[in-house]
Design brief:
The chain is an all-alpha fold. It contains two helices and no strands. 0% of the residues are buried.
């Protein structure tokens, strides 16, 4: 296995992690911003107001995007296992 193949596997792994975690992170950011604006407008500084909606949105997004994340990881593992079988690793 040469350096180019190693770098390509690392790049694909990092991209799979970013693509897989992207939907959850984007929803968490959006919900956090909406809650922050709501707290700034209403002067309500309740701690549970920040955590409960964000956790609920994250779990809902994770449940919806789980097939997408699974297919991304399956594609990556198929590529790596194909390299192992072909003797490239």
């Amino acid at each position: 296995m040469d350096e180019i193949t190693t770098y390509e596997i690392i790049r694909q792994t990092i991209m799979a992690v970013l693509i897989g975690s992207g939907p959850v992170l984007i929803v968490a950011l959006g919900v956090g911003l909406v809650i922050a604006f709501f707290q700034a407008l209403t002067q309500i500084q309740e701690m549970t107001l920040t955590f409960v909606p964000k956790i609920a949105a994250i779990f809902l997004t994770l449940a919806i995007s789980l097939p997408f994340v699974f297919s991304t990881l399956v594609r990556l593992s198929d590529r790596v296992f194909d390299l192992i079988v072909s003797g490239g690793v």
